[in-house]
């Protein structure tokens, strides 16, 4: 089946490593893509040298990816729009894009995070700021380390939308021999899983940086999945989602890979860098777990969900808890049934 509603011309707003990689996936899937970059130097590098030298160096972008710094032009004639700016700037950007968005087209949400202050998930920010029907929003989330995908290494992902047909249309638009999307309807679960795993990956990076072993990593992944699932359930998510690609799949990839910016940041903290220095060492690329440990912790407090790993990461990032004491904090939690 190849539905008539499969988008052909897609605007990707945000030319960081994920926006650029997803633009490549879409072009490899046969779509015409316009990638909006904030900075002319990024657009120029893509136009003139077919490479995003700043965010995705060494990857040749196909001719199907055009780059533009004018979002009105990028959105003109688009029959789907992917939003690839970091979570905490999505509100500001949506406010700017809102009036130029084509009516009725699917909006593909790529950012993983929960907004500080409001506790809103990214699809909620998009719907509220854009005054949009939430059923238009398709959340893409899974084990999707950009650098691996850009190199054509196979992966799968989840496309979550309350409107199944819309998810299927996007599924057909972005499927390639190396990128296999599955559809689900649990938007809350996909978003909470994608946000929470970055915090757990930070904890795994800290553990790794301290020279602890795979038992510690496996314990963090397993208990991390448990606490993120509990939060998701409190917010109305389907527990099974957390065993899927946007849950366990993404958690394992991010907690295990040296390519993960969140895990790498955790390692740097364990090696003795302060938060600002550890962020600076990341070359300006976003590590969402740093903000998400705050917004997820706030949500957990609001919904009375116990999240000891998230709490420990928050204390390391914002309350000067030494990374070694983070492990003690977690090991000293009251004993409980699994
Ligand atoms: N890189 C990955 O492997 C990956 C995979 C899946 C999901 N994600 C998620 O995608 C989102 C984007 O991540 P990324 O990896 O592309 O980040 P990045 O750090 O590589 O790039 C961020 C992009 O956003 C732009 N930007 C930064 N602040 C902005 C602002 N205020 N307004 C507009 N644009 C702004 C930057 O110029 C850059 O183009 C994050 O939520 C991340 O968790 C990333
Ligand atoms: O590099 P990270 O830690 O931002 O993780 C990237 C993706 O979210 C992995 O799925």
What does the model show?
The protein contains 15 helices and eight strands. The protein has an eight-stranded mixed sheet, with helices on both faces. The protein has two domains: 9-185, NAD(P)-binding Rossmann-like Domain (Rossmann fold); 192-331, N-(1-d-carboxylethyl)-l-norvaline Dehydrogenase, domain 2 (Orthogonal Bundle), CATH 1.10.1040. The chain is 49% helix and 11% strand. The termini are far apart. Strand 7, helix 7 and strand 8 (179-184) form a beta-alpha-beta unit. It has 338 residues and is an alpha/beta fold. SN-glycerol-3-phosphate is lined by residues 112, 143-145, 198, 201, 250, 253-254, 260-262.
Short description:
This protein is 49% helix and 11% strand. By secondary structure, the chain is α/β, with parallel strands linked by helices. 54% of the residues are buried.
Question: What key attributes describe this structure?
Answer:
alpha/beta; binds nicotinamide-adenine-dinucleotide; 2 domains; N-(1-d-carboxylethyl)-l-norvaline Dehydrogenase, domain 2; binds SN-glycerol-3-phosphate; 338 residues; 8-stranded mixed sheet
Estimate the mean pLDDT confidence: 97
Note the beta-strand portion: 5-15%
The CATH class of the largest domain = Alpha Beta
What Rg do the Cα atoms give? Answer: 19 Å
| CATH topology heading of the largest domain | Rossmann fold
Q: What is the CATH homologous superfamily assignment of the largest domain?
A: NAD(P)-binding Rossmann-like Domain
Q: Please give the number of β-strands.
A: 8
Shape: globular
């Amino acid at each position: 089946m190849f539905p008539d509603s499969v988008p052909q011309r897609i605007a990707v707003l945000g030319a960081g490593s994920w926006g650029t990689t997803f633009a490549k996936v879409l072009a490899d899937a046969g779509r015409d893509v316009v990638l909006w970059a904030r900075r002319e130097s990024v657009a120029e590098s893509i136009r003139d040298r077919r490479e995003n030298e700043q965010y995705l160096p060494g990857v040749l972008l196909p001719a199907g990816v055009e780059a533009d710094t004018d979002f009105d032009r990028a959105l003109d004639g688009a029959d789907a729009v992917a939003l690839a700016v970091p979570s905490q700037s999505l509100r500001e950007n949506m406010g700017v894009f809102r009036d130029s968005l084509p009516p009725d087209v699917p909006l593909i949400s790529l950012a993983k995070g929960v907004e500080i202050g409001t506790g809103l998930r990214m699809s909620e920010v998009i719907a509220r700021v854009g005054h949009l029907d939430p059923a238009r929003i398709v959340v893409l989330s899974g084990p999707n380390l950009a650098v691996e995908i850009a190199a054509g290494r196979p992966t799968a992902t989840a496309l979550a939308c309350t409107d199944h047909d819309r998810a299927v249309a996007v599924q057909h638009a972005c499927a390639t021999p190396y990128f296999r999307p599955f559809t689900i309807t649990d938007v809350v679960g996909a978003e909470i899983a994608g946000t929470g795993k970055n915090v757990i990956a930070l904890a795994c990076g800290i553990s790794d940086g301290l020279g602890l072993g795979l038992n510690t990593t496996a314990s963090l992944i397993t208990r991390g999945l448990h606490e993120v699932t509990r939060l998701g359930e409190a917010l109305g998510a389907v527990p099974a989602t957390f065993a899927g690609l946007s849950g366990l799949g993404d958690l394992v990839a991010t907690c295990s890979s040296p390519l993960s910016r969140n895990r790498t940041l955790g390692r740097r903290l364990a090696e003795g860098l302060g938060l600002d220095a550890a962020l600076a060492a990341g070359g300006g690329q976003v590590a969402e777990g740093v903000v998400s440990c705050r917004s997820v912790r706030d949500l957990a407090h609001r919904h009375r969900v116990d999240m000891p790993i998230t709490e420990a990461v928050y204390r390391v990032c914002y309350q000067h808890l030494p990374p070694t004491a983070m492990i003690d904090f977690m090991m000293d939690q009251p004993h409980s049934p699994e």
